[in-house]
Amino acid sequence: MCSKALALAALLNLSATYAFADPMRFTFGSGDPRPPYTSERGSGFEPMPGATPDSAFYFSVAVPEGNYRVTVLLGDETREARTTVKAELRRLMVENAITAPGQILRKTFLVNVRTPEIAGGGAVNLKEREKTTETWAWDDRLTLEFNGSHPAVREISIEPVNDVPTVFIAGDSTSTDQPREPFNSWGQMITRFFDDKVVVANHGESGESLRSFLGENRFAKILSVIRPGDYLFIQMGHNDQKDKLPGAGAFTSYSAFLKQMIAGVREHSAIPVLLTPVQRLTFDPEGRITNSLGDFPDAVRRVAREEEVTLIDLNAMSKTLYEAIGPAHGPEAFAPGDATHHNNYGSYELARCVVEGIRKSKLELRKDLARDVPQFDPAHPDSREDFAVPASPSSSSLKPYGN
User: Fold this and answer.
1) How many domains is the chain built from?
2) Which residues contact 168 (CB under 8 A, 6 or more apart)?
3) What is the pTM of this model?
């Protein structure tokens, strides 16, 4: 499944102008060559270490910062295909689409592309990892990963979209776009649970606290692009515990930073949403999760009441979820040897918790949840054996910042 329209893209000089009025289309057929991505061409295939041509591949297109509607036609002329689509840094978009021989399945989703520069001056102060292993989170191209037991794509169409709400995420390693297996986060999985009328812009980063998120211009970047009717989901706490500066604490600096961000979002006529920090995997002898986050979950709850902000109590839901999975199988939701950072299965279940919080809220956003998403009870998690999201080929033993 390779491109027949890459030459057309080169003729249009998309990488140089970033201008297009009609959707960019790339058609694919078996036996075509797979030209690599080049800045001159502005599109092409990216190398995928560890993958065979029939198991997974990347395709990138140069685009400016913004939101894009992507439509893919999936299927193989001669055999059954199973295709999972991820975007940018492993954001789940299409989950295990199965097509019979000759069948074509159309899927549409929205992707956010961003760069570090801030309109009006300045830029996000990126960590070194963001400049190396996480470059696809901040570069000037839209990258798609096609994965599965036999991924098959017939056509890709990409066009800019400006009339949809954006859900921004301000978070730490438990919600950011993790670059490599076995690590993953709920922010990477939640994209799958919206329809094609909402786009997610995940600005979280490993190791972040509210103080550092503000200090590194990450919040300034969000404010430079957020629009009326957009959302900002804020989930911090793990790294805020380590703040030892004078006056630092859950009910002092942490609460003040939350209120500062709430006020900034509201000044732009956007909607803040607070999430309590997700639990760590810390069981007591009776199989109950112990609180390893001190006063920080309660501080979020208090600020939500005082500021009349929608609260998604992920701390409480993750406690229920982990206890339902149990001490014996709890590690199966986390990266090996890790009690903070999740694998694909764990982050998928947490994303379902967040979705359930949205569904039970009064947010207009609840109307834009995907129609194939059933209600979810954290006390009855999905079976680990039935989990079907394939791992991306690239892996690393390097743990994310934070714990």
Assistant:
1) 2
2) 201, 202, 203, 222, 226, 230, 231, 232, 233
3) 0.93
